[in-house]
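Lab notebook, bench 4. Still working through the backlog of constructs that have no structural model yet. Next entry is a single chain of 115 residues. Request: give me the structure tokens for it.
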Amino acid sequence: MNTTDELPTDQAVTWSAHAFGLTPALPAVDDTLRQADVGSLLGLLDDPDRFVTGHVLLTWASGVRHEAFPTWNGLAVDIRADGSVDIDPAQREDLRRRWHAWAAADPRPDELPAR
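Model written out:
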């Protein structure tokens, strides 16, 4: 997998909850994309089916400091007792705005701008 066009949808992101918070996993993505250019990943935030994938990859690639609880870098993830996950798509625009503000800053801050 070497372009963002080939990235899986948000359904491929798996989440686990533990004592330290939330942890995403994207096993279908190789290490190249985990370290991809931030600019090339920003477009994923416009895709309603890939915004979670974009947010996870941007967090990894940018190296921003982030919390893992109660949200994962500002993304609210509801993990139910049966292991299913619900992520409200209404979060997309806020995350998109925050990532674009972060990317436009010079120098870039070490964490996403506040809501």
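Notes after review: DSSP finds four helices and four strands in the chain. Residues 3 and 78 are 29 Å apart (CA to CA). Flag for follow-up if needed.
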